[in-house]
Specification:
By secondary structure, the protein is an alpha+beta fold. It has 1 helix and 5 strands, in the order βββββα. Helices cover 18% and strands 38% of the residues. The chain has a 5-stranded antiparallel beta sheet, with no helix packed on it.
Length: 104
């Protein structure tokens, strides 16, 4: 579960769901033949305990920065354990450059 804003209100995001709707054929000559429309919705729980299904474009996660930092740390640890410096694809340095090292 993640904190989010849904339709401008603070909420807890539970999961994504898919909704399918049947579209009847057009009665007009040359109209569309009908079919199925599918779209994603988020299942969220508001602070008052109510649960709602909201369109995906109305969900904004509030913890994305922290999550990205965590994933970056985990990826760096994995790279350190599972690759040699040459395999990582990053240039190898003996030390972090100081401001005085920068050419202006």
């Amino acid at each position: 579960m993640r904190l989010c804003m849904a339709n401008g209100k603070k909420a807890i995001f539970h999961r994504w769901d898919q909704v399918s709707e049947l579209v009847a054929p057009s009665p007009m000559r040359g109209g569309h033949s009908g079919g199925i429309i599918r779209y994603s919705v988020g299942i969220v729980e508001y602070e008052d305990g109510s649960v709602a299904s909201v369109p995906e474009k109305c969900v904004v996660f509030l913890d994305t920065d922290k999550l990205m930092e965590k994933l970056d740390r985990e990826h760096s640890r994995w790279l350190a354990k599972n690759t040699t410096p040459e395999e990582s694809g990053f240039p190898q340095v003996d030390r972090i450059p100081e401001k005085s090292d920068v050419i202006r």
